[in-house]
Each structure stands twice: as C-alpha cells, then as structure tokens.
Amino acid sequence: MDFYFGNPHPYPNIHQYHAHNSVVSMTPSSPEIALSDYLMLDDYVDHQDSRSSQSTESSEKATFCDPTHGFSTGATSKNNNMKCKNGINENKRGVGPRIAFRTKSELEIMDDGYKWRKYGKKSVKSNPNLRNYYKCSSGGCSVKKRVERDRDDSSYVITTYEGVHNHESPFTTYYSPISFVHSDTTFK
DNA sequence: CGTATTTGACCCGCGC
DNA sequence: GCGCGGGTCAAATACG
C-alpha cells in the first residue's frame, strides 16, 4: 500500500487543510490502510489524544505548522523535546516548515512520490524506537524527513517532513496536478 | 561494479 | 567547560 502525494506543492495534502492548527478528517479510499493522525511539531511530546482504537476508521488529522502562520499544537512550551526558538516552527537552519503526521501502518517506508535516501538512524530518548533520517535524493533538493514509530502505539508511524521540495514529485508527471486539488492522499 | 544502506563517529546547540 | 541529546557524515558494507 503505497501512499503518496502527487502534487507540486511540497505538502499537497496538508495545505488544503486550513492553514494552521486545523484538524481535518478524511477518508482514504483504501480500507487497508487506516490513518489516524495528526501533526505535531516542535512541542510534540505527549499526544494522548490518539485514539488508537479507530483502526478501521480511516481518518487523518493534521495540524499545520508554518512560520508564516505561527503554530500551536496544544502543547506549547511544555517541554523542549525539540528545540524550538521563539515557538516558531522553523528549524535552526531555516530550511523551511516542518510537518509531521502519524500514519497507522505496518510499514515505515511509504512511497510519497519522492525518492528518499536514508542517511541516518538514531535512537532518541523520547522514543524507545529508532528514528530514521531520509533526505530527498533529487539533486539540489534538501528536503528531509524523519520516520519513527509512535512511542505509545507502535502500530503508528510518525513521519516528519522538513523543508520544501524545489522540484515536483517525479510522480506528478503521470497525473495532472489539478486532479490532486481535491484528491488529497491517494492510495493504491 | 555502481548505487543504496548501515552504523559508529563526529558535530553542534543547549542546559547546568 | 562539560555532558547530553539529537542530527549528519562518511567509510564500510550490502545489494541489484
């Protein structure tokens, strides 16, 4: 079950959720993957609101975090799990917005339309599971993503994207971008 | 044999 | 200044 974004926008299925902090539910067409997710950025720590029970109730929740909109995910300045200056969702290198979401999935490798090269793996304190680091392999594109399993419910995978792609997903060449305006995530 | 992944070392910011 | 935690590098290794 591949899961990808086929949109020129770096976060195609995110930007259509209303800018910041909005929570949107959607229902992917495929029953075999259930999303029950949300995004959290810098202040992510304990997200007990996870309803791990709705396994078949495909839904996705997202909280958009963008420097221009500011951000808040509920857990403000509660901790410093992730370093965040000024409470702004901007990493230290100013690479760009960071976006994260949880996906209920057995696999951690999801085909989101981009080609990723793994460059690191690390065990982090806040999570007993390993965190994997990927970089977009397209030349000149420095978008990164982290993938780790939910510390509380290992059936979920937390994916964090960082930065903005300076190119379109190779996948988009097969589809008209317009068609994605309303299609959100596509499952196949 | 070229490319992708693995994995320990290294680096850097931050708090004490 | 030092140690810790997290992120990245890069040599070695695996894989096609």
From TrEMBL:
Transmembrane segments: none annotated. PROSITE patterns: WRKY (PS50811). The keyword Nucleus applies. Residues 105-170 form the WRKY domain. Signal peptide: none annotated. One of its GO terms (cellular component) is nucleus. It is found in: Nucleus. The keyword Nucleus applies. One of its GO terms (molecular function) is DNA-binding transcription factor activity. InterPro entries: WRKY_dom, WRKY_dom_sf, WRKY_plant. GO terms for biological process: jasmonic acid mediated signaling pathway; regulation of DNA-templated transcription. Its main location: nucleus. Keywords: DNA-binding, Nucleus, Transcription, Transcription regulation. This is WRKY domain-containing protein. It comes from Glycine max (Soybean).
